[in-house]
Structure formats: C-alpha cells, structure tokens
Design a protein that fits this description.
heterodimer; A: BirA Bifunctional Protein, domain 2; 2 domains; two-stranded antiparallel ribbon; B: Phenylalanyl-tRNA Synthetase, Chain B, domain 1; OB fold (Dihydrolipoamide Acetyltransferase, E2P); Phenylalanyl-tRNA Synthetase, Chain B, domain 3; 20 helices; 41 strands; 28% strand
Chain lengths: 349, 804
C-alpha cells in the first residue's frame, strides 16, 4: 500500500471516528492519537525518506491536507457537541413564566389629589401660579373682601364653622383672590393664579354633603381680560379633565363676588349629550361656577376697576371626581378605604 | 316658585311654545329651572262621576255602595269608604284599568261581596300633596263645588293639565317670586312686553281713617305700611280657578279672604295679611319692635316668645301678628268674619330673616321679605286684593289707603357705555342691540353719545351698577354667542414654588415606597387633636361644632391616620401603609390665625411585603420604617444632617422604640411604635408612625450641588468587628470611626449585630465594613493599615472595645 493510500485510509477512518464520537473527552483523545507526535500521520511522514525527491512534495502536501481535514472535523464536531450540551442545559433551566412575580408595591395617590395635581399642572402650563392660603380665615377675607356683607344669607351661622367672631374655617378658596390681589404688583404683569385647598361648611355628612371638601379657585386680572377669555379657559379645562369631545355651556347665575356670574355645564361625557341617567336626561352636567370679578372686590383690595378687570372661577375636585368616576358618596374620599383608593392607581399621572 | 304655564300666558303670550322648551330657554338666559312638573303625569282613566244614590254596605259599618253615573249607558256601582260620600256629589272616579298616584292600578273587584267598578278618589290619591288639600277634603273624597261634565277626564277641571315651571332662583332674582316678575323675565327673553290688567276698585263712603288709626314706631324697619278695610265680606270657599292657582303652587286653599291674600302674593310677590277687624281690641294699629318676653300665639297654634329684635303688629296693646312672618291666632279670619283689615307692607329683610330663624317660622311671606320685594307695587297689590275681595266675597272697600309709612325707593339711573360692555364680554354688540335688550327688559333709556342712560325700574332691585347691566345684556344676548378665546397680554411664568415642589417630591417618594395617600378630616375630637405632639399648644375649638367628633382643629396628622387604620381593620384590610400631607394647626392667641404647619405623616401596620409562593411575608418593624425615612432623607439631600435620638416624650408612643428626629438642631419630627397601652385602648394591632414638619426642611439651607467625576482609583474595604457594652450605640461607634479614620474613609456600614452568652453579659458584638478611597491616587496598603490602627485605638480608648 502506497503512502498515499495509507494516508487516505487514515483520513477516512479518522473522520468516521470523529463523527461517531459524542463526548468532548473522547474527541481530545482522538486529536492526540491522530495528530500527536506519536500519531500515525507523523509515522507516515517518517517513511518519506524512502520516496524519490520528485514524490516527496506531493505526499508531504497531501499529508498536511489530511492533518488539516482531521483538525477541522474535530473542531466541527466539538462545536456540535457544545451546542447539544447548551440545549440540554437550557432545557433544565426553564421557569414557569406563568407563576406570579415577587410582590412589589407602589402606593396610590389619593384620587382628589390626583385631580388637583392634574388641574394644577394644566394651569401651570398656561402661565398661572399656584397659591396656597390659610384654612383658618378671617371673616374679613372670607366674606367682607368678597363682597359678602354682614347679614348676607351666605354668612349664616348654619353654613360657617366659626372659631371666634373674627376667625372661621374658610368656606371657600375665594379669600385667596383678595389675599393675592393685595400683594400683586401689576407693573410686573397680569395676575394669573389658581388656589386649591380644603374648605369647610357646617353640614351634616351624608352621601352628597361633607363638612370638609376641596375647592380650586382661579383668577385672572389684567387690563384686557374678557368673558370670552373665561369661556375659552373653561373650555380648555373641561376638555382636559373630561375629554376632548366635551362642549361647555354657560348659564346665568349669582355669586356676590362676580358680575356677570355664570354656572358652567359640560356636555355629558356618559352619553355625549343625548341624555342619560348621569345627566338626568338633559345632556348637560353642571360642573362649576364662574364670572367676571365684581368691581367691589377689586375696589376692596385697592385695584382700580376702571383699569383692571378679569375673571374668576371656582370648582370642586370632589364633584369633578364624583362625576368623572361615577362615585355616588362623597364620604368615600375621607373614609380612605384602601380598596376604594387603590382602584385609582391607573389614573395617576 | 312654580310658574304656572297657563297663568303666565295671561300676561305674556308664549305662542304655545312647549313648556319644557320654554324652561330650557329660561335656564339659559335668566333663571335656572329645576324641573317642569306635569301634575297629571302617569295618571290615566280618571273621570268625573256623579253619585246618583248611596246606601250602606250590608256587611260593613263604614263602607257605602254608590250608584255612579260615569257617562256610560248605565250607572255603575262603586264601593266607597270615605266618610263624606253622599248622593248628588260630583266626584273623582278612577275607572277599572286606571293608574292613580304612585303608579297604583285600579281593578274591577268585590269588597265584602259587593262589586265595585273602580274607586272614588281623594285628591291625595291622584297625586296631590296632603299640604295643599283643602281641609274639608283632607280625610275624605274630593267633591267638585259645581257640576262638571260626567265621564270626562278630571285633569283639566283640577288644573292638572297645566305645566308648572319650577324656578330655582338665585338670591338676587327674588323679583321672579311673583307672576308679574316671572312674566317680565319670560317676556324679555321672548322680546314681548307683558300685559297686566289694570286694577279697578269701587270704594264705599266710609273712610279707612274713620275705621282705623295706624302708627309705625320703627319707620326704618318698616319702610311701607298700608292698610285698607273691607266690610261685610262673605267668607266662603274660593272659586275652583283660584284654588287651582294656589294648590298648583303648593298653597292650601282656606277661604276666599285668606286665599285672595295668598293669590295676590303669588301674583305680585308682595305678601299680604288679613286681620279680623272685629277681633282687634282697639282700632289703633301700632307697629313697633316687640318687648322681650312678649308672647303671641301664631296661626299655627304655636306660642312664640318674642324678643326686642322682632317686629310686631299690635292692636295698640297686644301683638296681633309677627310682622312679615305669621299672623296671630287672636285676629284670625274665620267663617264668622265680617269685616277685615288688609295689610300690605315692606319689612326690613334682615330683621325678618332673623325672626324666621329665631322662631323657626319660614313661610312664603318670610322668604319674600328676606330676599326682597317690588316696593313699587306694594300699594297696587293692596288694591288688587280689595278688588278680588269685592268680586269674590262681596266685600265693600273702605275709602282711601291708610298709610303708616310709605317710603318708595327711587329708580336708579345707570350709565352703560357700549365700549365697556364689549370690553368686558369680548364681543362686538352694537349700541342699538344693547338698547333693544333694555327695551325687552322694560328698562327706560336715553341714548346719548357713546352711552345709554338707563333707568332701572324698582322691580329690579338687584341692579346697582354698570356691571349688573352688562350681565343683563350678556345673558339676553346669549352666552352661547360669546366667542371663545384665551387671555392675551404679557407673558406670565407658571411654576411651583419651593414649598409646593417639596410637597410633591415627598409624596412621590412615599408612594414609591409603597404607601398609599389618604386625606383625613382636619376637624377631630378633643383627644385626637392634641395627641402625638411635643409642644402642648392650646386647643382650637369651633364655636358651634356639628358633632364632638369634629370640634377641634388637629395639631397632628397621626390621629387621622389611626382613624383610617381602624376603618380598614374593621373591613379586614389588615396591611395598611398610608400617609397624609396636610396642615396641623398651632394656636397663637384668640385674635390671630393659627400657625398652619405643612406636615407629612405616615403609618405602617401589618405586613409590608406580602407572602407569596416565593417566601414569607415581612411584618413592619422599626428598622423598616427607618429605611423608608432614610430613603426619603437621602432623596432630599438631608440624610447626613438628620439625627435620631431615643425619646420617650410622646405618651402615645413606645418609650423604647421611638426616636425624635433632629435636622441640625431643629426638631424635624418623630418616628416610633404605638405605646402598647394606647394601642390596647384603641384596640389596634402593632403599628408604627412618623411625622415630619416640612417647614423645618424648607428652612434648611442646602449647599448648591457641585458634581464630582466617578472615582478612577479603586476603593479598599476593611472589616472590623468589636465587642462593646450594650449601651454603646451604633451612632457613637460610627462617629468614633469617622473621627479617627482620616480623610480617605468614604463610608461605614454596619453588617452584623450580635449578643449572646459567649461574648459576655451586657455585651454586644458589632461588625463594620469601612470603605476607603483616595480620589487622586491608588491607596497603598500601608495607608489603609495606618487608618485602621487609628480607628482601633480610638474605639479601645472610647468604649473599651475588644477588637476581634
């Protein structure tokens, strides 16, 4: 058998052995056995000295070729075996993805504060400042400055929690109008503010009354502020809170601190204005009160109503939330049943 | 007031516009309409019947068998239980298949063996409120005063086909508490001038002043006081048309004299009162303030003890009426009354309101005097009543009006500048259009250059200034026609201030740590108000609380959180982690407003992480709560400035598990477990609470942050374990380490705390990991070893620490 034939036989046998091997250890043994210094190919190459000088390069090249083929076959087989081993491991590492995760909890902001925060951010974007005011107010700011003189029915003891003759729990956030107006320097530009907060009325708590609730006051005073501006602003608000499709409707009303005074209705979000239980089959829902600031209010704070004027509005986040989410008992806001509070998690912005 | 659609049409032609549609328009231009009431809604098959004969039911001592003509070919038998049933009455019959009040269906049936083809009805049974049913029919069937067409539906004959538009007025629009005012309002909206028939009376020869004298002592409180006498009246029930007007407006018909006073009140909005002339002990009428403790029995039979602030009408001696509120029983009109005195007056609204409240007598009259009446029609209303008493009761009017006082306000003149109007409204309404709206309102005006001079009639006493007329123009022009714009003008910056930003941030951090936000009541009970406080400031109490549960202003937020905890525990919600941000109130003195301190408080009870298939739940403990606080303080950049001091000053908290929190040297708040005794009293489980004064954080000046590059050189860690006496605190050891370790120490972490017999009685083993780093170079082993040697020496000196 010629050297070439011997080499060819070695290759055939070697490649077959490699392809039949299914352990990495055995492959290494084959590598040492076939390609090592004591291996058969080396042995064959030693027999080259008996060949003619013409034959030597051909056989030498052939032997190297075979060495390379076997090395490649080993690498390829090794790669295949690694792949199988990985697959095997992955199969054992599989988890049940349908099992629940570790319990991780974040808290839920109170729905009333969500409503207030949302409205605050809207008005911040419109260039308003957010003004806080005292919850314990003076009779002077809560009533007198708001054009609610003594003996006005709205001042009845039955409506107001008085502490002393002069001090009371504020019944509205409106006193912050006067407080802010007094301090405002109109040479620095217009006044645009909202003022959210807790207010108090002398009511028995029931499904629709709460002795404590929340209000947001809005006020814009400048040289050229119109009722059309009020309408546009309230439209922005209504759409923001109740949806882009909402329309608003203004109706005459009365507040001592605005003239003209209006109530604002929005088109029913439940039925789109067709009439349903939510809107009591009118297509409209009353949501807030507003108007053009009464000249007396401006006079009271030393602002000339001949030069300056503007609008004010007051809304109830409690009422907004009750309407928007179909809450039928105002006490739920203040009982803080966790099951009630948690459902508003998804509404948080 | 419920505005009768039919009555309204006597004054202004609404051109048969659907009442609901009219109501909607009124709501948009003037007065909110609460509802449009259809008295016959839901009723059917109720007809006029004529009782031909009656006989007692053979098997009953109170039932009557009636043969009733219902317009059919044959009379039908109806069994009736009413005591006032009798032959020849025209009555209300609900036929078989009829629907009466409360959706009750009437069926043909048998009563104790006798067939009954329907039911003879009382007014209440067809939907009338008991308070408007004439007294004689209150406990029986209704009987028509005159024959009505038998078999025809009764609704029209009882005024039930009328539609009642319920005006829900705001306090400024009491001018529509009379049909005339309502007609003006509707007329203005429809561009129609209402028409009111002239009042015509024929007077007798007897002068009123020969029959009566009148003196008004308190003229300020009684700007108008007018009297007239009507003689020889024939007191009897009013005609049905008048009764219908009254009962449709919620007023019970009584007799023609009383009914006329009520009718005129509904017509003009002017309350009237009628006295029995012959019951007055003298005919010297004196109007004055009451004397304290003076007594009057009012028409409702109640005895009133008067005070000097009440206005009374007297017959020279005794009160005969509480002015503007209710008449006295001593001068009541009865069937025997022959001669009457009619009073038409204006009383001070505030005085009447206080009287009504004081005596709890809120009547149709007090409502009107409180809110205001048309002082230009006080005399006309008096004449109108006299006219009707002539027509309905054959009364003879005395000659002339007896005047106790008659001060009629002057009509106001107001300048309206169209430019102002458009400036306020953002419109382009022409001066002519504005003038036309004034015409619609019936306001006289002179059109001058660039302005209108408007004379506002006295009947619109709510209008004082130009802004009021701008409102009149705006509402009748139509708010729907206003453009919709946003304010233009100088730009303003909208941004949260420091306090608002801090509040938003701390809330977000607590939410992120799993706490739910709550809102509790700021008004609490006495115990709750002053619990959980360091400084005992004085209580702030409401003058007239509704309940003792909400009588005091809170000085802490924890009490509210405990109420929330109890509420949830009662509903099996045992794992509660909640916080509230709100004000607590610290009294300064009786004159000043209290300090309102922005405060943050939280409460944890139960499990802070839930049990799952992966492991057990974790109950809250002191160090969990402290961990949340640490996270909060780190995020606020004050973690290094806050110190925790063991504290037992708050009685509601566990003396061994409470820390007072200091920010620098200011008291920031506290954190701790509820005191077991307090916990037991409130029947609560173990719970931890914390409260922080946000003003203290706001007052803390923090240096401006200067950033540093991430370190380039490696850090070195060394562990140190030591045994010290149990009374040595972690804070003391950490401070000592920091003091001794030199400038390359960047962090000290405790990683083990151990006590046990093998280390000795009252001893504890503490293990710390110290982190060293030089930002400029790699630390050498020698540098770190030197630092550790100094630390060790310091701990041995300061705490006799045994280094392990």
């Amino acid at each position: 058998m010629s050297l070439k034939d011997q080499l060819e036989q070695l290759r055939r046998k070697g490649v077959q052995d490699i392809s039949e091997t299914d352990s990495q250890k055995r492959l290494n043994e084959i590598r040492v056995k076939l390609l090592g210094k004591k291996g058969p190919i080396t042995e064959v190459l030693r027999g080259m000295k008996d060949l003619t000088p013409a034959e030597r390069p051909t056989v030498g090249a052939y032997a190297n070729e075979i060495k390379q083929d076997i090395a490649e076959a080993i690498d390829q087989r090794l790669h295949e075996l690694n792949k199988v081993a990985l697959q095997h491991r992955l199969q054992h590492e599989t988890v049940d993805v349908t099992l629940p995760g570790r319990p991780i909890k974040t808290g839920t902001p109170h729905i009333l504060n969500q409503m207030i925060d949302d409205i605050e951010e809207l008005f911040i974007g419109l260039g308003y400042q957010v003004v806080d005011g005292p919850e314990v107010e003076t009779d002077h700011y809560n009533f007198e400055m708001m054009n609610i003189p003594k003996n006005h029915p709205a001042r009845d003891m039955q409506d107001t929690f008085y502490i002393t003759k002069e001090l009371l729990m504020r019944t509205q956030t409106s006193p912050n109008q006067a407080r802010t107006l007094e301090k405002h320097d109109f040479s620095q530009g217009p006044l645009k503010m909202i003022s959210p907060g807790r207010v108090y009325r002398r009511d028995n708590d029931d499904a629709t009354h709460s002795h404590q609730f929340t209000q947001i006051e809005g006020l814009v005073i400048d040289k050229h502020v119109t009722m059309a501006d009020l309408k546009g602003t309230l439209e922005v608000l209504a759409k923001h809170v109740f949806g882009e499709e909402r329309k608003i409707r203004l109706r005459p009303s009365y507040f001592p601190f605005t003239e003209p005074s209006i109530e604002v209705d929005i088109s029913c979000f439940a039925c789109g204005g067709e009439g349903c239980k939510v809107c009591k089959y009118t297509g409209w829902i009353e949501v807030l009160g507003a108007g053009m600031v009464h000249p007396n209010v401006l006079k009271n704070v030393g602002v000339d109503p001949e030069v300056y004027g503007g609008f004010a509005f007051g809304l109830g986040p409690d009422r907004f939330a009750m309407l928007k989410y179909g809450i039928n008992d105002i006490r739920q806001f203040y009982q803080n049943d966790l099951r009630f509070l948690h459902q508003f998690q998804q509404e948080a912005k | 007031m419920k505005i009768s659609y039919q009555w309204l049409n006597q004054f202004v032609d609404t051109e048969k516009i659907d009442p609901q549609k009219l109501a909607d328009q009124v709501s948009l231009t003037g007065i909110e309409v609460a509802s449009v009431i259809a008295p016959d809604a839901g009723l059917k098959k109720i007809v006029v019947g004529h009782i031909l004969s009656t006989k007692p039911h053979p098997d009953s001592d109170h039932l009557t068998l009636c043969q009733v003509d219902i317009g059919a070919s044959e009379p039908v038998q109806i069994v009736c239980g009413a005591p006032n049933v009798a032959a020849d009455q025209y009555v209300i019959v609900a036929l078989p298949g009829a629907r009466i009040a409360d959706n009750v269906k009437i069926k043909r049936g048998k009563m104790r063996g006798e067939a009954s083809e329907g039911m003879i009805c009382a007014l209440q049974e067809i939907g009338f409120s008991d308070s408007v049913v004439p007294k004689e029919f209150q406990n029986g069937i209704y009987v028509f005063p005159n024959p009505e067409p038998v078999g025809e539906s009764v609704f029209e004959y009882l005024g039930m086909t009328d539609r009642l538009i319920d005006f829900d007025i705001t306090p400024n629009r009491a001018d529509t508490l009379g049909m005339h005012g309502a007609a003006w309002e509707v007329g203005a909206m429809l561009h129609k001038r209402p028409q009111f028939p002239a009042v015509e009376i024929s007077e007798g020869n007897t002068k009123t002043s020969d029959l009566l004298n009148v003196t008004v002592e308190n003229k300020e409180a009684v700007p108008q006081y007018l009297l007239k006498v009507v003689q020889n009246v024939n007191v009897q029930p009013s005609p049905l048309w008048l009764q219908i007007r009254l009962w449709n407006n919620g007023v019970r018909p009584i007799n023609n004299v009383v009914d006329v006073t009520n009718y005129v009140m509904l017509e003009y909005g002017q309350p009237l009162h009628a006295f029995d002339y012959d019951k007055l002990t003298s005919h010297e009428i004196l109007v004055r303030q009451a004397h304290d403790h003076e007594q009057l029995v009012t028409l409702d039979g109640e005895k009133c003890e008067l005070v000097a602030d009440d206005i009374v009408i007297t017959d020279g001696q005794d009160p005969v009426a509480l002015a503007g509120t209710m008449g006295g029983l001593n001068s009541e009109i009865t069937a025997a009354t022959k001669n009457i005195v009619i009073e038409s007056a204006v009383f001070n609204g505030t005085s009447i309101r206080k009287t009504a409240q004081r005596h709890n007598l809120h009547t149709e009259a007090t409502i009107r005097f409180e809110k205001g009446i048309d002082e230009s029609s006080t005399e006309e209303a008096l004449q109108r009543a006299v006219q009707l008493m002539g027509e309905l009761a054959n009364g003879q009017s005395s000659q002339g009006v007896l005047v106790g006082n008659q001060v009629i306000p002057v009509a106001k003149e107001i300048v309206v500048v169209p430019k102002h109007v458009n400036h306020v409204l953002g419109t382009e309404i022409s001066a002519a259009q504005m003038a036309s709206i004034m015409d619609d309102l019936g306001f006289a005006h002179q059109d001058q250059t660039d302005q209108l001079l408007v004379t506002v009639p006295i009947r619109r006493w709510d209008i004082f200034i130009e802004a009021d007329l701008i409102e009149e123009i705006a509402r009748l022009y139509g708010y729907d026609k206003l453009p919709s714009t946003l304010p233009v003008g100088a730009q303003t910056i909208g941004a949260f201030n420091t306090k608002q930003t801090l509040i938003r941030k701390v809330k977000k951090l607590l939410l992120a740590n799993g706490l739910d936000e709550v809102i509790s009541y700021a008004l609490v009970n006495e115990q709750e108000a002053s619990a959980f406080t360091y400084e005992q400031t004085a209580d702030i109490k409401l003058a007239w609380p509704m309940t003792q549960d909400h009588a005091y202003l809170r000085q802490n937020l924890i009490s509210g959180l405990l109420n929330d905890l109890q509420y949830n525990l009662a509903r099996k919600q045992n794992d509660v982690q909640i916080f509230e941000q709100g004000n607590v109130f610290h009294k300064i003195n009786d004159e000043q407003q209290p300090n309102e301190i922005p405060t943050l408080a939280a409460l944890w009870s139960g499990q802070v992480s839930a049990a799952s298939w992966l492991g057990k739940s974790q109950a809250v403990d002191f160090y969990y709560v402290k961990g949340v606080l640490t996270d909060l303080f780190e995020n606020l950049g004050i973690a290094d400035l806050v110190t925790y001091q063991a504290d037992a000053a708050i009685p509601e908290l566990h003396p061994g598990r409470t820390a007072k929190l200091l920010l620098g040297d200011q008291v920031l708040g506290f954190v701790g477990e509820l005191h077991p005794t307090f916990q037991h009293e409130l029947n609560l489980p173990e719970a931890y609470v914390m409260q922080l004064n946000l003003d203290v954080i706001l007052a803390q000046d923090l240096p401006v942050l200067v950033s540093q590059a991430a370190p380039k050189y490696p850090a070195v860690e060394r562990d140190l374990a030591l045994i010290v006496h149990q009374q040595v605190t972690n804070a003391e050891v950490v401070n000592a380490i920091k003091a001794a370790a030199g400038k390359y120490l960047t962090n000290v972490q405790i990683f083990d705390v151990f006590t046990g017999e093998n280390i000795g009685l009252h001893k504890q083993s503490l293990a710390y990991r110290l982190h060293f780093q030089n930002p400029e170079a790699t630390l050498t082993d020698e540098q770190v070893t030197n630092a550790m040697a100094k630390v060790t020496a310091k701990l041995q000196t300061d705490f006799a620490a045994q280094i392990r």
